[in-house]
Please model this.
Amino acid sequence: MSSEPSIFFADANERQGSFLRRTFVVGGLTVLGVTALVGRLGQLQVVQAQEYATLATQNQFNFRLVPPPRGLIKDRNGVVVAGNRPSFRVLIVRDETKDLDQTLDLLGRLLPDTMERRRAIIRDVNAARKFMPVPVKSDLSWEEFAKVNQYANELPGVMVDMNEARYYPFGGAFAHVVGYVAKVSDRDVKAIRDAGKDPPEMLFNPAFRIGKQGIEKALDEDLRGVAGGNRVEVDARGRVVAEDVGGSRPAVPGAEVVLTLDADVQNRALEVMGDESGSCVVMDVRNGDILCMVSSPSFDPNLFVSGVPTRIYRALADYERKPLLDKALGGTFPPGSTFKPTTALALLAAGVDPEIKVVCNGAWRTGNRVQRCWGRHGAQNMHDAIKNSCDVYFYAMCNRAGVDRIRDTARELGFEHTFDIGIANQKKGLLPSTEWKARTFPRDPVWHPGETTSVAIGQGAITVNALQLAVMTSRLANAKKALQPRLIKSVGGVDRPSGAEAPDLPFKPEHLQLVRGGMIAVANDRSGTAYRQSQLGLGDLQMAGKTGTAQSRDYGSGPRKSDIWALKDHNLFVAFAPIDEPRYAVAVIIEHGGKGGATAGAPRAREVMRTVLLKDPDMRARIERPPPPEPTGPPESDDIVAGAAPPPPEIAEPDPAPRPRAPRTGPRPYYSEDPR
Model:
């Protein structure tokens, strides 16, 4: 009997169960994966579709900032003194060049002067942001522009375009007051961050320029405008392949700034200054408008727009007459005899009788010191002392007012002040006082009478600038208001306050009239110190003035005169016109001009004043008016002189006795003053 084979399913069932379990696990995981994938695709395509569409568009398109046209700066008559002009330029995009050195080599053969700036170009290119065009050279000639375009295929990453560059049509005439623009430096960015602000993105554009001096710096944010942007399509590497004109945003030009300056007067002032070092300021005595503010010698601000070469900058910086310094605001000098009207007002405020006479024999003794006058004037009252610029009169009388009263009077006239005219870098100057002496010289804190004599004639420690002299003259001419100077007429069409909105002067009208009478005599009495140099030759229009010579050193026992420029005296002149209806005031300082105020300062002030008066329609009509008919009867008197005071009573003033004086360690006073 054959036996039946036996079949055992234990192993088979185990294998089948294991297979089924794996199938279920893999299938489950597959289903979960497919479900997750479908869910994610649904989320991307339905829920987040708009978000990723926006990101994709942003990757395809981007904005490139376009610097806005800088705002125009105009004079009071609408003449552009700082504008923009078209300029061809070459740019390099670092990320689009195959080999920067090779590109610069070829570019150097086309534009040889770029080789001189090669290191600076490489530094700028490497510092620029990704795909940011960096200017290599501006102001290309047409030949250079055509040459670069001709070899464009061999210059990957190099492009040529046209932009607007800052332009100063009058060159040096407005260089100090308007200033200039230049590239943004790391120091500029740091200053903005130190002020707690975020630097605008526009500042990192290598082609952008900001104001560095004068009005350009003071009103830089107003003049900048708002940057625009070109919407461009880029490839995966960020290179531009097309421009979306419809998506671009135009730049908004900067605000227009109108100054109170007059371009004709400004140019004439720089012209008459010639090669001299100094400054000239003209003000309207009715409202405080500054018509002219020139510093000489000057420089061409156009050199700084594209970057001034080092050798030219060093030549300007090292020149002894300092063309880069704004002498109208930042240059301080002793005022010399132009300060005597201020001293006269202080004497009058102290109750000094203006008819008292002092006999000038050419010198005055104070203690053991002899202080000299520039001449021998004989008996002088206050009017004569101003007319003849007699030092001895002010030596003798000044201590009746005292240095502190003189200082207070000077401050009321505008000295030792900085004015809110919109630009900085103003020097206050110095008006010495008893408090200043005690603080500055603790070893010799006592103020001595001999120090007042120096201050009284505008010497010693006293220093002023040309703007302050013009303010003083304007306030004397106005005789009512403590005028404030105004330089900026409007910004963006919004007017700035007038300088006539000021408090009244704290002086008696008769005192102001007496001082003005002395200044009228200076320029119109034949014996005045500036008679010949002050004749305007404009009909019946006359000018009042005051000369001044200020020592630049202590002569000691050495000679007064010197042929060395830096050792010569400073030469000053202040004036207002017309004398019967004052409208304009002028102050001129000639640094190391030598001789006297009537030789260098007065002729230049006269020429500038002539320009101002001839531009005034009212004054021009008065000049062109036919003269009145000559009288038919005999003249009333042959002795009347324009600007002369009536003969005063003879009141003798005896010479003061010498006074003992303690040794001193303060600054030595100056000993003489030549106003001629």
